[in-house]
Design brief:
- It is a single chain.
- The protein has helices at about 25-35, 45-55, 70-95, 100-110, 115-140, 155-165, 180, 185-190, 195-205, 210-225, 225-230, 240-255, 270.
- By secondary structure, it is mainly α.
- It folds into three domains: about 1-60, no CATH class; about 70-230, no CATH class; about 240-270, no CATH class.
- The longest helix is centred in the N-terminal third of the chain and has 25 residues, at about 70-95.
- The chain starts with about 25 loop residues before the first helix and ends with a helix.
- This is DNA methylase adenine-specific domain-containing protein.
- GO terms for molecular function: DNA binding; N-methyltransferase activity.
């Protein structure tokens, strides 16, 4: 058991989880953690140091059972489906002045003229679910419900802005409770998951691939496999990308006479001359 920060709260049971289905990276991490933390103390009389070292080996709450990318993709898909259904329900009962309906109409006017209510609900569900996943991955300390949109990495400004727009209809400034649409379910899912273990698992399966970018394919496969195929969402493996880039670079050098290949600054107009 571990003492919590609040003096009024009871100690929390903490665990270190692993099983025979874990990846090599996860098992290696568990092994190194146990070896480093659960060793005999250098000073047997320093009880506090001993207790701190042993206690630090157990960092997960019992509910933190999600340690693989596969399991997280499944749970995210389940939560996203619930959000989509709830958003559809809200759109059905809201008036034209309802916050979610007004946002839907704005998207129709500015972005997609033939956007259906279900397509909008789908967009909402995916953006909220995956946006908060991206935010959680960039914030090891965890998500803060009052400041979710700002936690999305600045390297993805479109997702950051879109998530901010969607969250605007909920929370303190909106008229829809986060619980009504299921946003808090995503927050809780991210808090209950061991994202570091998930990223290690993902890296063990697909080395050198950014989990925040490439995990979307796994998520969409679980959420809506048919839509994944319709939209052609298939990330090209790193070796294939490398081969394509090197091949184009070589062709530019040998066939077009560009000594710097892809790095050459010559324009098509200059080449035509």
């Amino acid at each position: 058991f571990s003492d919590t920060e609040g003096e009024s709260l009871l100690p929390t049971l903490r665990v270190l989880a692993w099983d025979d289905k874990d990846t090599v990276l996860h098992l290696d991490h568990a092994h190194e953690t146990l070896k480093a933390k659960l060793r005999w103390p250098d000073d047997e009389k320093d009880v506090e140091s001993w207790r701190t070292s042993w206690g630090s080996a157990f960092t997960l709450r019992p509910r933190e059972v999600i340690t693989t990318s596969k399991r997280l993709a499944v749970r995210m898909a389940e939560v996203a489906t619930q959000i989509r259904n709830r958003a559809n329900t809200v759109l059905e009962v809201e008036t034209e002045n309802g916050p979610l309906t007004k946002l839907y109409n704005a998207f129709q006017v500015a972005l997609i003229h033939d956007l259906t209510p279900d397509d909008f609900a789908d967009m909402y569900a995916q953006t909220v679910t995956y946006g908060l996943f991206a935010a959680a991955c960039s914030r090891p300390a965890g998500l803060v419900a009052e400041n979710l949109a700002d936690m999305v990495p600045v390297t993805n400004p479109f997702l950051k802005e879109l998530l901010g727009a969607f969250l605007e209809v909920g929370g303190k400034r909106g008229h829809i409770d986060f619980d009504e649409l299921g946003v808090n379910d995503v927050v809780q899912l991210m808090l209950d998951a061991d994202l570091e273990a998930v990223k290690r698992d993902f890296g063990d399966l697909r080395r050198e691939e950014d989990p925040v970018i490439h995990f979307y394919e796994d998520f969409l496969r679980e959420y809506d496999a048919k839509k994944k195929i319709q939209r052609g969402i298939f990330f090209t493996p790193q070796p294939v990308v490398s081969f394509i880039v090197r091949s184009v670079d070589e062709i530019l050098r040998t066939e077009f006479g560009l000594e710097d290949g892809l790095a050459d600054t010559a324009t098509w107009g200059e080449m035509a001359e």
